[in-house]
Amino acid sequence: FLYFSETHGISFRIQITVKELLETDVLLRLLFHLPLNYPSTLPDISVNSDQLTRAQCMDVKHKLLEQAKKHLSEPMVHDLILWIQQHLKDIIKQSAGVCNEKTTLSKGTSTEDGIGMLLLHLDHMRAKAKYVKTVEKWASDLRLTGRLMFMGKIILILLQGDRSSIKEYLILQKTSKVDVDSSGKKCKEKMMSVLCETEVQSQHKRFQTFEVKEYSTLEELQKEFETAGLATLFSEFVPPLLK
Q1: Model pTM greater than 0.70?
Q2: Residue 147 and residue 70 in one domain
Q3: Is the separation of the CB atoms in 61 and 54 below 8 Å?
Q4: Looking at the structure, do residues 139 and 200 belong to the same domain, yes or no?
Q5: Strand, coil or helix: 65
Q6: Where is the domain boundary, 95, 124, 144?
Q7: Which of 6, 148, 188, 239 is the most exposed place for a label (fewest CB within 10 A)?
């Protein structure tokens, strides 16, 4: 898929399968975000794979960025894809030896990219069950935690995780057919607003899971935010939605 923004550049996702690696095929999902001044500026790259650990995915990403620096000021995406197909096995072998150590070191600390947080507001969900299932799957695939929250007519999605994964989630939310229109046809989300996109701060509690929750009162919803150390986020963005 391809997503273009006049202010942010181009984003696109590529899936490649590397054959006969570690006795199994490895499916890599690569998200490239090319800023407006690419290739004078390096692309942002997100790496996900069900066959690799998060640490291994980060190693693959760092190696790709190292390789990208060698191609600065010239188109590089095609070269990077060919390069990773040839070198993935070596990267994983190197990563395997330090994987446990890295996991221990990174526990409770941010990744190099920082841990991002995103608060979205949706106007409505006509096909609610299907929509909720889709959001849950995306959060799971991208290893994002947080809440999908319903309170009266208010629908909020609060996400925490790697900033590259949050970027990919936003693209999925904007470009996929997640709901149905008034005539029952599948449609993209056109009534979503990004209320806040920021980094997780030390006073914020990290969500361990992604959950779908319904609240009967505004006070219940407010308590959810306060418990997570997000009282300011609530007071700034949620009450205006009631007006």
Answers
A1: no
A2: no
A3: no
A4: yes
A5: helix
A6: 95
A7: 6
